[in-house]
Amino acid sequence: MSAVTVNRRFVDRVVLITGGGSGIGEAMALAFAHEGGLVVVVDRDADGASRVASSIVASGGLAVAETADVALASDMQRVIDGAVARWGRLDVLCNNAGIGIAAVCHETSESDWDLTMAIDLKGVFLGCKYAIPHMLRQGGGVICNTSSVAGQVGVLNRAAYCSAKAGVVGLTKSIAIDYAAHNIRCNALLPGTVDSPWIGKVLAQQTDPVGERARMEARQPVGRMGRPEEIAQAALYLCSDDASYATGTGLVIDGGLTAR
């Protein structure tokens, strides 16, 4: 019987993940660490970031936790520069932090619009702004931005969210073109509905949580929501050398939601 081959595509590569304290970001952090990455877990929830980083270390990996608000330039510059100061480089940036506010356009408050844009779009911009100079100096790097199928098609009752996530797709393409000659690749993930802590909070606010969960599951042709681990595996691919020819693309992972 042949030996099982274990992928270790990120050995000695420094990976910074925002929103790494739960959900998709947590799954990404664990997945990159499993393949040898030196992981910086960034989250505004200090306890969540610390829990994930501690789990990685307990499993024999290397990780540190950082508390930051991705909408603050000073925070993003601090954690990115700090990662480079600690490990000498930044190979992979996963701009994953995001929020979702439910409202149609005329019922969206200005403050909710601004908050959604600040975290879901400005946070991605700031991550790229402060990571790219390091990547230029070291001769390359990879950026993976978490958008959403809501950045490609309209979703009911999500005016600000759809707008921000579409902006992430546009920014991803712009960066891919601007830095292709500098060996910097930039791609986006476009997940469908993923069973995450955020979905749990949404369901908890419903008058019929069981019925709402069933409706969420049924809108995917595969009949279920995605799992954070499935999105993390797509991030591993896009950030690995296996995807060396992929830049400026949006990888849709939605259980067939947008295939109809």
Textual characterization of the structure:
This protein has helices at 23-34, 46-58, 73-87, 110-138, 159-179, 197-204, 209-218, 228-239; strands at 14-18, 38-43, 62-67, 92-95, 141-146, 184-191, 250-253. It is α/β, with parallel strands linked by helices. The protein folds into two domains: 14-99 and 123-153 and 167-191 and 228-251, 3-Layer(aba) Sandwich (Rossmann fold); 193-225, no CATH class. The protein has a seven-stranded parallel beta sheet, with helices on both faces. α1 packs across α8 and α4 (110-138) packs parallel to α5. It is globular, with a radius of gyration of 18 Å. The N and C termini lie far apart (43 Å).
Task: Give a short summary of the structure.
The chain is an alpha/beta fold and 260 residues long.
Question: What layout of secondary structure does this protein have?
Answer:
Layout: E1 14-18, H1 23-34, E2 38-43, H2 46-58, E3 62-67, H3 73-87, E4 92-95, H4 110-138, E5 141-146, H5 159-179, E6 184-191, H6 197-204, H7 209-218, H8 228-239, E7 250-253
Parallel strand pairs: 1-2, 1-4, 2-3, 4-5, 5-6, 6-7
Helix pairs in contact: 1-2, 1-8, 3-4, 4-5
Number of domains: 2
CATH class group of the largest domain = Alpha Beta
Secondary-structure element string: EHEHEHEHEHEHHHE
Question: What is the overall pLDDT average?
Answer: 95
Q: From the alpha-carbon coordinates, what is the Rg to the nearest angstrom?
A: 18 Å
CATH architecture of the largest domain: 3-Layer(aba) Sandwich
Low-confidence stretches: 1-5
Number of E strands = 7
Amino-to-carboxy terminus distance:
43 Å
Provide the helix percentage: 40-55%
Q: Helix- and strand-based class?
A: alpha/beta
- Biggest sheet architecture: 7 strands, parallel
Global shape: globular
